[in-house]
Amino acid sequence: xxxxxxxxxxxxxxxxxxxxxxxxxxxxxxxxxxxxxxxxxxxxxxxxxxxxxxxxxxxxxxxxxxxxxxxxxxxxxxxxxxxxxxxxxxxxxxxxxxxxxxxxxxxxxxxxxxxxxxxxxxxxxxxxxxxxxxxxxxxxxxxxxxxxxxxxxxxxxxxxxxxxxxxxxxxxxxxxxxxxxxxxxxxxxxxxxxxxxxxxxxxxxxxxxxxxxxxxxxxxxxxxxxxxxxxxxxxxxxxxxxxxxxxxxxxxxxxxxxxxxxxxxxxxxxxxxxxxxxxxxxxxxxxxxxxxxxxxxxxxxxxxxxxxxxxxxxxxxxxxxxxxxxxxxxxxxxxxxxxxxxxxxxxxxxxxxxxxxxxxxxxxxxxxxxxxxxxxxxxxxxxxxxxxxxxxxxxxxxxxxxxxxxxxxxxxxxxxxxxxxxxxxxxxxxxxxxxxxxxxxxxxxxxxxxxxxxxxxxxxxxxxxxxxxxxxxxxxxxxxxxxxxxxxxxxxxxxxxxxxxxxxxxxxxxxxxxxxxxxxxxxxxxxxxxxxxxxxxxxxxxxxxxxxxxxxxxxxxxxxxxxxxxxxxxxxxxxxxxxxxxxxxxxxxxxxxxxxxxxxxxxxxxxxxxxxxxxxxxxxxxxxxxxxxxxxxxxxxxxxxxxxxxxxxxxxxxxxxxxxxxxxxxxxxxxxxxxxxxxxxxxxxxxxxxxxxxxxxxxxxxxxxxxxxxxxxxxxxxxxxxxx
Length: 724
Known about the structure:
Helix 2 packs antiparallel against helix 6, helix 8 crosses helix 9 and helix 9 packs across helix 15 (550-560). This protein is elongated. By secondary structure, the protein is of the alpha+beta class. Among the domains are: 424-584, 2-Layer Sandwich (Heat Shock Protein 90), CATH 3.30.565.10; 607-721, Response regulator (Rossmann fold, 3-Layer(aba) Sandwich). 29% of the residues are buried. It contains 20 helices and 23 strands.
C-alpha cells in the first residue's frame, strides 16, 4: 500500500492543476495589463510629442513678436541718434523743446516704449520724449546701463527691470552708446520699454491651460513674465534655465519638477534674440500633458475593462475548482511526508538501540574476561617475590593493557546506557567554570577557550563525573578538528523544546531543559558524517588517534539521564554540539567557595557606574567593584544611568549589562553615553548564549567584555586591562 501511495503521489510533485489554473487566472489580468501599459507608454510619448510640437509653434510666434519689437526699438534709437548727431550736448540742452517735440512724435505711436532719453557723459538727461522740461537733477549716472556703456564700452545694452524716477513706472532699458568721431564716449541714447506690453502679447499667444512665457536676460534676470505672479526676479545659477543655457546657449529645452514661481512641474523651451543676450522662453505644464494622456487612455478603458473582467471571472471559476483538488492532494502528500519522517526516525532509534544492546552484551562478557585476566596478573605479581626487571616490565605492560581495556569497556557501557550513575541536581555553570583550568591544560595553547554562562540558569539532572567527561570529550574532538588552532566556546542556557521539535525528533520529550553547547571553529562535518557520529567505533581520525567512542559514550550518557543531543555542522564552518539535560527543582550541590581576595584600599580604583536590572546581580557587581577599590554608583536601567552620569562628571567607567529593561539596552546606553562624554570607557557583561552561537565565541572588535558569572580577581584584571 505504501509503495502504491508513493507511485501515485510521485507524479503529483510537478506542476499541479491548481498552479496551472492560477497561471491562467493571472494571465487573464497580466496580459491585458501589459498590453495596456505598453499602449499607455506609446500614447504618453505621442501626447508629449504633440505637446512639444505645439510649444515649438507657440515659441516661434512669441519669438517673431519679440524680435520685431526690438527691431523697432533699434530703428527708434537710430532715428534719435540721427536727430542729435549735429548737436553738441550743450546745443541739445539749449534746444530741448524742439528736440522733445520731435522725439514725442517718434515714440507716440509705439505702445511698447514708455519714454526715450538722450544722456550726456555725466549721466544727466538732456532731453526726454515724454517729459518737458526735465526736472533738475535727473540723472542716470548710477544706472547699470550707463555704467556699462561708459566703463565697458558696450555698444548695446538691455538693463534689468527698473523703476522710473520721474513717474515710478516699471520698465527695462534698451540703450546704445553715443560717441565722438574719434571714438570717445559721448553719452547714451536710452529707450524705456514697458514689460506690460510683452505681458499683453504673451497672454494673446496661447489659450492653453497653465501656459507661461517670459523674456529673460542671459544672466537670469527676468524682464517680463506671463502670468504675472510672485517669485524671484532673477533665476539662480542652479535653476534649470541657467543649467540648460550653459549646455545650449542659442536654443534649447529643459524640464523642471518644481517651478520657482508657482511650484508646478513644467517643460520649457527658449530661443535667443540675434545680437542681444535676451531669450524668449515658453513653459508648458506637464500635468496638462498628463491630463490629455489620461483622457486618451480612459477611452480605451471603457471598452477594455469589461472584457478583461469577464475573462478573469471565467478563469477564476476554473481555478477554484482546481485548487480544491490540489488541496486534497497536498494533504495526502503532507501525510506521506510525515509518515516517512516518523519511519526514518524510528529506524534510526531502533538501529541505535540494537547497537547499544549488542555493545552492552559484549562489554559485559569482556568485563568478565578482564576480571579474570587482571586477577591472574595481580596474582602472578604477588607470587613472584623478587621479579626481574624484565618480568616487572611485562607485568606493567599487562596492567596498562587491562586498564585501557577497562576504560574502553566503560565507554561501551556508557553508550549502552547501562553504567551506574549518581544522578543529582547540578549547577552547570559551576561545573563548567571549574573545568576551565583542566581544559586549558588538555587542549594546549593553540586553542582559545571561551565560556558564556547564562545568568539565572536552572538546575539540571545529571551525573557530575559523566558530564565532565562528556564535555571534555567534546572539547578534545573540537581541538582535533582545529589542527591549526582556533576558538572553542562552551556556553550554557535555559531551553524549552516544544511539541513541534519533539515531533520531528522522536526520542525527545517536550519540556524544559538546561543546554550545554560546545562549539569550535574547525573543519566541520558533512551530512553523512553527522548521521554516523554517534555510532560506536566510528571515527574520522587517523588510525591510532581515537577509539570512536567519545561521541557515542556522550550520546549514551545523555540518553540515560533523559536528555537530548544535537549536532549542527557544515564543512568549513565549524561544529556545535548541544547537550540538553532535563531541568530539576532539587537543591544543587554547592562546591566550596574560593578564598576572597583581600580588599584594596577604598578610592584607589576608578569611579564606576554599575548598570544592572537584577538587584541580586547588581549588589554583587557593586560589592565586587568596591572590593577592588572602586568608587561606585549604581543604576537599574538606562534612563537612570544617564541621569547619574549627568550629575557626576567624575565617572570614568560604565559597567553595564547588555540586556536592560524599559526600551534601552546596554549597547544603546553606551552609544548615547560615549557620544555625550567621549572620555567615558565601557565594560559590557551578559549571560546570553547567542554570543557563541552567532560569533563562535569571537567578540566584536573593540568591545570590552566579561562574561557572567565573573570572579572578583577576573573583574579586577579586566578593569586593569582598560588602563585604570
